[in-house]
Amino acid sequence: MTHPFFEGIAPVRYEGPDSDSPLAYRHYNPDEIVMGKRMEDHLRFAVAYWHSFAWEGGDPFGGQTFERPWYPQDQMKMAQVKADCAFDMFDILGQPYFCWHDADIRPEGADFAESHARFESIIDIFEQKMATRPVKLLWGTANMFGHRRWMAGASTNPDPDVFAYAAATVKMCMDATHRLGGENYVLWGGREGYETLLNTDLTAELDHMGRFLNMVVEYKHKIGFKGTILVEPKPQEPSKHQYDYDVATCYGFLQKYGLEQEVKLNIEQGHAILAGHSFEHELALAASLGVLGSIDMNRNDYQSGWDTDQFPNNVPEVALAYYHILKAGGFTTGGTNFDAKLRRQSLDAHDLIAGHVGAMDICARGLKAAAAMIEDGGLEDALAERYAGWSTPEAQALLDSDFDSIFARVHAGKIVPQPRSGRQEQLENYVNWFV
């Protein structure tokens, strides 16, 4: 330990399902082979620096509840303490990756130059710490939603000076991500949307956002960054309507601006729910469109109706998520980032470890259930049976035909539909056999 914050907490180990330790992995065994691959290499867990270390326990109706040794966070010496404590936690958990925003790791400076210098100072510390540990960077990103300068957006801002500030910020963060060997770079447009159409030029804002993302891709190739550029969909909150609403909206945007071959998506469970979808819907659609990149694994409180960012605890939901990820071939550069935070009453260092331990176990159970379903093949068999009619030459000919010829066949009574059961309840029962 480099700091006493986690003092007395030993590195978490796999002890199996019979363990009675609250800080032991009961299901996450990094070396267990699942579908021919180590569990750690399937799941590719990452800790989110912002929720674990920058968040102070506030909610919309109340402020800070946590007391941490790196508060107040407006001092560089505290940012260094925060880095020490973060890497202590990485050592305890043994997860392979972490993620950050620029604003998580350094305090804001008096101007961009000072903020940049502070940022580089912490990146130096990260580089030194990573040189002596196996932990790697899954992705970096820029916080372009917290400071008041971003109140009307970043790349979509009506003020070109803010667009320029955003470009400089992303360049800085991409350089650092590249330097640390990051495997992805994420853009989450937290305020890339609008509050009212009364003062919003949709065409201009979308065009500026499209040009900005093209500049990101151009810079990726210029510096030789081999990682994946990811965009994260979210429908609302804080903006009334955000331009990266869901997977389908993002894909349409990427197509319009010629980016569908260059950019993939980082999909979050909580954001899927806010968009009125299930997590597996968003994952399945992204896989179908060829843009599934990485995931943020969390959950929302279904009674609250907003983005509560809780650690996952629902094995069936997680199993269906990994089912679609495995069907798509699994992660390449992406992984499972815990974009999740403690409840504001969970005050202790022990709670921070326990939240991640439980989440990693839930994901391990979900992964194994998903793999078992794929190996059993029941869902694939049911799918093949349901669509078997399309395998006949007559059915394929329909796709090469036209309305007039199809009309003639139907009118002559040669095609008479006979509805068949979709067997939804039976398939839902099937999933529950594995979870």
UniProtKB/TrEMBL annotation:
Entry keyword Chaperone: no
Keyword Ion transport listed: no
Catalysis: reaction(s): alpha-D-xylose = alpha-D-xylulofuranose
Residues involved in Mg(2+) 2 binding: 268, 271, 307, 309
Positions that bind Mg(2+) 1: 232, 268, 296, 339
Co-factor requirement: Mg(2+)
Compartments, record wording: Cytoplasm
Catalytic machinery residues: 101, 104
HAMAP family: Xylose_isom_A (MF_00455)
Record gene name: xylA
Quaternary structure and partners: Homotetramer.
CC cofactor note: Binds 2 magnesium ions per subunit.
GO MF: xylose isomerase activity
E.C. code: 5.3.1.5
Protein name: Xylose isomerase
Gene3D superfamilies xref list: Divalent-metal-dependent TIM barrel enzymes
Family of this protein: Belongs to the xylose isomerase family.
Keywords: Carbohydrate metabolism, Cytoplasm, Isomerase, Magnesium, Metal-binding, Xylose metabolism
